[in-house]
Amino acid sequence: MDIFALEVSGVGGVHAQVNYDATKLSVTSVTAGSFFSSTQSPIFIYEDNNGTLDVYVSYLGPEITVSGTGDIAVVVFNVKTSGEAIVRYTSESELLGSNDVPIKLNGLGQGVVNAK
Fold this sequence. Notes:
Blueprint lengths: L1 E10 L1 E8 L4 E8 L10 E6 L3 E7 L7 E14 L3 E7 L4 E3 L5 E2 L6 E6 L1
Antiparallel strand pairs: 1-6, 2-5, 2-7, 2-8, 3-6, 4-5, 7-10, 8-9
């Protein structure tokens, strides 16, 4: 699953929080996407708390930001049991511009993993 930013401008940092059904899914890996690629590597940290995944990406200093559309992180889940599992962004997710100024989110998404 990609954690994705769509048509954003002046982003210097992201906190993406994703809830998932830990009885049906487990996180296998989380890797940085290509959205924050530039001449300076960003800080990339994630924390998986058995049903809640927090991903943090940030540049050091206010002078570097990114704009556009792209993948922030790539999450690979392991399926524990068959059936549908909802994966959704929470309201704790946020984009930050330079100097940690919040950028308004126009919507948060969700998806369904249908394992057989």
